[in-house]
Amino acid sequence: MNRFFNTAGPCNPERHYTLPAMARLPQVRRLIDQQLYFVLHAPRQTGKTTALLTLAQELTAAGTYTAVLVSMEVGAALRDDLGAAEDAILDAWLGKAEAQLPPALQPPPWPAAPMGRRIGAALKAWAMASPRPLVAFLDEIDALRDDALISVLRQLRDGYAGRPRAFPWSLALIGLRDVRDYKVASGGSDRLHTASPFNIKAESLTLRNFTAEEVTALYQQHTDETGQVFTPDATARAFHLTQGQPWLVNALARQLTEVLVPDPATPITPAHVDQAKELLIQRQDTHLDSLAERLREPRVRHVIAPLLAGEPPDAIPLDDIRFVQDLGLCRTDPQRGLVVANPVYQEVIPRVLAEPTLTYLPYLQPIWLTPDGKLDPAKLLEAFLAFWKQHGQPLLKSALYHEIAPQIVMMAFLHRVVNAGGTIERSYAVGTRSMDVCVRYQGVTLAIELKTWRDRDKKRDPLHEGLKQLDRYLAGLGLDTGWLVIFDQREGLPDIAERTTTEPATTPAGRGVVVVRA
Q1: Do the Cβ atoms of 79 and 146 come closer than 8 Å?
Q2: What pLDDT does residue 364 have?
Q3: How far is CA 74 from the centre of its chain?
């Protein structure tokens, strides 16, 4: 059986297309050889477990260390009972050790120890019994919370001075977050805000995404085994859409090779990649679903809302920005500053935010379609105006992010429009004060520029700026016309039904467009 693209759990090179595990973590071996403790944090399904499981196997096979990857996750359900959590964790460790290590390197029976000391006692006993220096990778550490988490961290710090004879030679905490963001309930906070319970760490590392060359190499493995070709443009498109996020890279390829283009004789093209992207977003697989759930967290909302609106944010704590970066939701672009991590997430975020509003949306008669099923932009505008005047005011209250409620409601409307066979593409970034929206339906493309006019903008009408931005957007799409929608959110205005108007306008480059003031 041929190998395949894996999207669930650690990768096994015998069964899955896999890149060298440690190529993205070249500094880890140095830290281990220097007898250091460290933290590895990265978003879910970026390859943390695969990389360190592989490294543990290599270190053990080389005869240098007793190296093992064990998990803390089973203790999460027992966080209110510290003793039970410790017992569950240690029981799970025995199973992991048995699967990964030869009998001579497996741990001795765990010693009896009081509650709150059992993890440290077990590591001490294992280190003393092992004929080689013990290297322990503690996966899913931030699944623990509150007293269980603090207790484990303090036990590790307490045992640190006994290494290497009476405690692990080297040890890593592996999770989604750096130590300061571990979840606790203490002092009115839900985070540690400090590394002090684990101030023995030498470094905090993260795991970078795949490079364009690595994506090409991964996809080439499929070509080598099956003969199916990814055209260079298709591979480049996959990298652009994913920015090398490992789960997305694999998930796109899995959709392509097993669902959309299962015949190995058919080359995979950029159009296929775009179809696969749409399938992924519609499926809302676990990875994208868990990502979407993060959008409800206040710390995430503080960063994402101004991003979507394209507005300069109010003062946002640096920890919150670092948090969304650690989650993999955002990255820093050298030219544009803080942006959503990749085009797939850029599509997922507005769709997820629009979903609650979609549930309240009334049935919409598709008057925007021509008799042959194509999009009629003039009829679509007529439908939107009628919808906005009748339903806009109450639907604004249903939006998950009230700061960008008008944009969310419009997104919900447009999703209902394209549900039967179209797509929506969006572009947004801090400082642009706008969102670009491209609706594609049965060969017809409509470009829309969304702007917001708030009280803090004083008397500055965003019309002139919006027309220039729409001009650039239309030029990039090769279009001659589009919409500029200005959501007027200043205080003291008439009801939406009364203030919503349209007027023709001309962009600086002479394009005829429609301005909607809503």
Answers
A1: yes
A2: 87
A3: 24
> What's the pTM?
0.85
Q: What sign has the CA pseudo-torsion 185, 188, 194, 198?
A: negative
The confidence score (pLDDT) of residue 258 equals 96
Q: What is the sign of the dihedral through the CA atoms of 126, 128, 134 and 139? A: positive
For residues 488 and 372, state if they share a domain.
yes
Do 193 and 82 have their domain in common? yes
Comparing CA positions, the residue from 83, 92, 93, 160 lying closest to residue 120 is 160
Token pair for 183: 């979840």
Domain that holds residue 235: 212-283
| CA-angle at 202, arms to 38 and 327, nearest 5° | 50
Q: What pLDDT was estimated at residue 193? A: 59
Please give the Cα distance from 260 to 239 (Å, whole number).
18
Distance CA 126, CA 111 (A): 10
Domain boundary among 188, 205, 222: 205
Residue where one domain finishes, among candidates 178, 205, 232? 205
Residues 90 and 40 in one domain: yes
Chunked mean pLDDT (size 10), the chain, 518 residues: 89 92 90 96 87 94 97 90 95 97 97 97 98 97 89 95 96 86 56 67 90 98 97 98 95 96 97 93 75 83 86 75 86 85 90 86 89 93 94 87 90 88 82 86 94 76 94 95 94 89 96 96
Asked if residue 461 and residue 385 are part of one domain, the reply reads yes
Question: Which are the contacts of 75, defined by CB distance < 8 A and separation ≥ 6?
Answer: 85, 86, 88, 89, 143, 144, 148
What is the Cα–Cα distance from 200 to 158, expressed in whole angstroms?
10
Same-domain check for residues 199 and 218: no
User: What does the pLDDT read at residue 188?
Assistant: 43
Residue 358 · residue 412 · CB < 8 Å: yes
Q: Are residues 130 and 162 in the same domain?
A: yes
